[in-house]
Amino acid sequence: ISEQKVKEIVEQWAPITGTKIYMNLGEPGLIDKYKELPFDGIGLMRTEFIFTDMVGIHPMYLVKQNKGDILISRMAEGIAAVAQAIYPRPVVVRFSDFRTNEFRGLEGGDEVEPIENNPMIGWRGVSRYISPEYEEGFRLECRAIRKVREEYGLTNAWVMLPFVRNLWELDKVKAIMASEGLEQGGSLKVWIMAEVPSVVMLAEEFAKKVDGISIGSNDLTQLTLGVDRDSGILNRMGYFDEQDPAVLKAIEILIDAAHKYGKTCSICGQAPSLYPGFAEFLVRKGIDSMSVNPDTVAYTKRLVASVEQRLLLERAFGKQ
Length: 320
Ligand code: PEP
Ligand code: MG
Hints:
This protein is an alpha/beta fold. It has helices at residues 3-13, 31-34, 48-55, 59-64, 68-86, 100-103, 109-112, 126-129, 135-150, 167-179, 197-201, 203-209, 217-225, 232-236, 245-260, 271-274, 276-285, 297-317; strands at residues 20-25, 42-45, 91-94, 157-161, 190-194, 212-216, 264-268, 289-292.
């Protein structure tokens, strides 16, 4: 797609919205291709591509060989490229969210990763970062982000913790982050992903401890409904449904809890751009931002603008 074409699309499809539209990004090099799109920031920067394609070696394998600097510098370069390209808009960098079966695929992974029967609900996310078996790997991730913020001066790089399950692990991981110079406060925003129903049930307690909650609609749907997101048969039967009333209820609770404590609430995942009714639900409930894949940024922006307009008209003149 030519630059001219992109500009035309942006002009035509980029009205102003109150709800921020963020973009998901996994491959740092792609920021050049997408940077003209009408997004307000990167709401989910996945780091797994950096691990698989830019480093290729398991972090703990690197630690064992005293080669952690490789991960720090490549991860910092990748994040900095994105943060630089869209400065001063934020880049919400998600710490690695591989499952054990995926981590095993990296060089040296089979030596350091256990085999789990249910990796999807196994040693992933924060439980990994605070464990003696991965803490040093997590510290490398922290150092990479610190480098971006301090050496590159890109303080628009924020952090996001995936697969949070409970409050005590959140305290522990924040303490590790602080010891690596990533103390919450000032320009460093710390978001968590709401993917596990325990976060919904204690939403207010979590909201007090963080700057933002980002709803991971894929995992939240899976775990709220008890439906394996990768199960072909359950998907064909319509069980995996982000618009199931139970999921919508969970989302509502999260938005309200975040707002009660003056925190931001976002959603990452494709659902808002797949289903206009879902986007409308989110806007009506007051979600602050939606983060979607590059190919749906412009469309989602337009969709949200039309929903917001309708809402304003309704407020002014009542439902037509
Ligand atoms: C999610 O769970 O909705 C999410 C965005 O994370 P991932 O799809 O990477 O698990
Ligand atoms: Mg997830």
